[in-house]
Specification:
The complex is a heterotrimer of chains A (371), B (163) and C (176). By secondary structure, chain A is α+β, with helices and mostly antiparallel strands. In chain A, 48% of the residues lie in helices and 13% in strands. Chain B is α/β, with parallel strands linked by helices and 163 residues long. Classes of the chains: A alpha+beta (371), B alpha/beta (163), C alpha+beta (176). The complex binds iron/sulfur cluster.
């Protein structure tokens, strides 16, 4: 006679050391096996969209910083592009170049955190310390430019809040020279580490059609093998001038679309970002970064949807203007919000310990999930 | 032989007040509950990572409130979260300390006006020992906050607490 | 790759009576207005038609159009009655690389829209969010609960323009 068994419900979070913020996962388990995962979100719902309706257009920018606080430059970028589209203004070349450089530096910094926490969650604490050291390097560059370490309010509608520091170009080149060997070091330390591969290869496999149907984007989608990148697909700013590759998951150590692939896509992307910075850094034209900032920002009636490639995926802003000085509605398509939806699919049939690895490989930021 | 060893080489007895001894022990190993809420949590992480090295003050992140002496409320507290924080706080053993990090935890920060779902200050729910201003506070500011907390602990007395 | 007019013509041919209009007042994108009770059918068509292949829903956003009659209630805050709530669908095809925006409008008093859960799984949480913040009811959604606000939030739908925040929630003071 078969024994009657019952499933157990286990709560992970909102206070849990590896949920990357205040996420609560409701796991239904049978022994160690996961039957279903239900994410509960909203513990960091900060009413961004309500704030955006109450503020003028430029005042919204600092709030966009706080959406995805690991990639604040990218958030600014998306928002200002959307408003500039509404206004229909042209941006000086110098501004475009600086924006791209900043966005790419931010991508590196953000991926560093993603990789570091992904490693730290499943037990590799040493890379965490190394990678945060390199991240500090980038933060110093930002700090030199605009005075803030994390939340910059740097890109303004039509321009930038500050011009770059005279030393910026030299320091950035120094950083690139410093950073190239670090990637090799990282690969030796973590990427091809036997234990790390054991924990992540063939875990949490995301087939491509599921990924598209769930609307996944960024490294999560590319890890499944589709070279989809908004920078290439729907070029904004001046990305069509640069030469870079779009790394995809190849299943080097396991199956295409597993945790390791998503992880490795991030590593490769950092190298591509370095390439873009190298192409841009020597070509920054002269000019004034604030000349195109409109005196009065009052877009005409209409709607706009602008999207950019943030480190976590496709970040979109849907803005409705009713001709006033504050937006009628701002809706953010947050990449992590959409990427987290696949969590339930990915975890089915895995062990409890794998949930951590899968969550780390999705690289979510609760700030933009809950907004 | 290290400096400290030399000091105690002839006569290894130290006489101290119980208060001083206890306070010294408490303040030099403040174990914090590893608990990040929002953007400020990233700065807290940066503080404990290599560059700023929180460990040298004896601050080690613990994963459960039952092993923690201090909790750093690092970020925006929403109404949904506030009840959980209260629960966590109640699970911590005495003596327990709270550092409120960042404007959000202090008073609602940028979300004070239209934040229909933001708790305007963690001190509406649990008592706070040290407020660290900033949005986000720099790691140096958090370190300063910790030093302030240590100072507070240094001046505590067992007797006063009972009375 | 097709531009919005071509897509609109294709749709008009297929569903002559339910596709309402092509809205071009906007400076940057044109929007196809659709009947809220037929959106699933249209979604399926958009997704499966060989010439369209809209396989990804980029974003689904609820909007309070605030076009009803505004009145003041006794303590001076706005009240809106009548008018519409809308839902916007931004679609994109990863294969053919074209984009289109759909819009449905529904009555503010009884906002009901068909769910596109079975067409694009992305819409699951987006629809829950629109329900949470605007109170739009998505018919046939398997799990329509609040998502961002607490499950026991009783003070209404916060992103509606006439939303009024409660004074207390579980004994905690809410306003500053
Ligand atoms: S104080 Fe500023 S940095 Fe800290 S959580 Fe609040 S918004 Fe984020």
């Amino acid at each position: 006679m078969a024994l009657k068994t019952e499933t157990m419900v286990l709560n992970m979070g909102p206070q849990h050391p590896s949920t990357h913020g205040v996420l609560r996962l409701e796991l239904e388990i049978e022994g160690e096996l996961i039957l279903s995962v239900k994410p509960h979100i909203g513990y960091l719902h900060r009413c961004f969209e309500k704030h955006a309706e109450a503020m003028t257009y430029p005042q919204v920018i600092p709030y966009t910083d706080r959406l995805d606080y690991l990639a604040a430059m990218g958030n600014n970028f998306g928002y200002v592009i959307a408003v500039e589209k509404l206004l229909g203004i042209q941006i000086p070349e110098r501004v475009e170049y600086i924006r791209v450089i900043m966005a790419e530096l931010q991508r590196i910094a953000s991926h560093l955190v993603a990789i570091a926490t992904n490693g730290a969650d499943i037990g590799a604490l040493t890379p965490f310390l190394y990678l945060f050291r390199d991240r500090e390097y980038i933060l110093t560059l930002f700090e030199m430019t605009c005075g803030a370490r994390m939340l910059y309010n740097y890109m303004w509608i039509g321009g930038l809040s500050h011009d770059i520091h005279p030393d910026f170009v030299r320091k950035t080149k120094e950083f690139i020279n410093h950073f190239r060997p670090t990637v090799t070091e990282l690969n030796n330390l973590l990427t091809f580490n036997k234990i790390f591969i054991e924990r992540t290869a063939n875990v949490g496999i995301l087939p491509l059609d599921t990924a598209i149907n769930f609307g996944a984007s960024g490294p999560v989608l590319r890890g499944s093998g589709l070279p989809f990148d908004v920078r290439r697909e729907d070029p904004y700013s001046i990305y069509n001038r640069f030469d870079f590759e779009i790394p995809t998951g190849k299943g080097l150590v396991g199956t295409v679309g597993d945790c390791w692939d998503r992880y490795y896509v991030r590593v490769l992307e950092m190298e591509q970002s370095v390439r873009i910075i190298e192409q841009a850094i020597d070509n920054i034209p002269e000019g004034d970064v604030q000349s195109a900032i409109p005196k009065r920002i009052k877009p005409p009636k209409g709607t706009v949807y602008a999207r950019v490639e943030n480190p976590r995926g496709e970040l979109g802003y849907f803005i409705i203007s009713d001709g006033n000085i504050n937006p009628f509605r701002v809706k953010v398509r947050a990449p992590s919000f959409v990427n987290l939806e696949v969590m339930g699919e990915l975890c089915k049939g895995h062990l409890v310990a794998d949930v951590i690895a899968i969550l780390g490989s999705l690289d979510i930021v609760l700030g933009e999930i809950d907004r | 032989m290290g400096l400290l060893d030399k000091e105690f080489s002839d006569g290894n007895i130290v006489i101290a007040k119980v208060d001083d001894l206890m306070n010294w022990a408490r303040l030099s190993s403040i174990w914090q509950l590893g608990f990040g809420l929002a953007c400020c949590a990233i700065e807290m992480m940066a503080t404990s990572a290599s560059h700023y090295d929180f460990d040298r003050f004896g601050v080690i992140p613990r994963n459960t409130p039952r092993q923690a002496d201090a909790i750093i409320i690092s970020g925006t507290v929403t109404l949904k979260m506030a009840t959980r924080i209260k629960r966590l706080y109640e699970q911590m053993p005495d003596p327990k300390y709270i550092i409120s990090m960042g404007s959000c935890a202090n008073c609602g920060g940028p979300y004070w006006e239209h934040g229909y779902h933001v708790l305007k200050g963690i001190d509406r729910v649990i008592p706070v020992d040290v407020y660290v201003p900033g949005c986000p506070p720099r790691p140096e500011a958090l370190l300063e906050g910790l030093l302030k907390l240590q100072e507070k602990i240094r001046n505590e007395s067992l007797r006063k607490k009972i009375a | 790759m097709k531009n919005p007019e071509e897509i609109f013509k294709l749709l008009k041919k297929e569903f002559s009576e339910i596709i309402l209009d092509l809205d071009k007042e906007t400076p940057t994108e044109s929007i196809i207005l659709v009947d809220p009770m037929q959106i699933t059918k249209i979604g399926k068509f958009l997704r499966e038609n060989e010439e369209l292949k809209f396989d990804s829903l980029m974003v689904l956003s609820g909007v309070d159009d605030a076009n009803g009659t505004k009145t003041k209630d006794e303590d001076g805050s706005d009240m809106i009655s009548g008018g519409t709530l809308s839902v916007y669908y931004h679609l994109h095809s990863t294969v053919l690389k074209h984009k289109i925006t759909l819009k449905v409008s529904t009555q503010r008093e009884n906002p009901q829209v068909e769910s596109v859960y079975n067409v694009w799984r992305t819409s699951d949480w987006h629809e829950r969010e629109a329900f949470d913040l605007f109170g739009i009811i998505f018919l046939n959604h398997p799990d329509l609960r609040r998502i961002l606000m607490p499950y026991d939030w009783e003070a209404g739908y916060p992103l509606r323009k006439d939303y009024k925040n409660p004074e207390f929630y579980k004994g905690m003071k809410v306003p500053y």
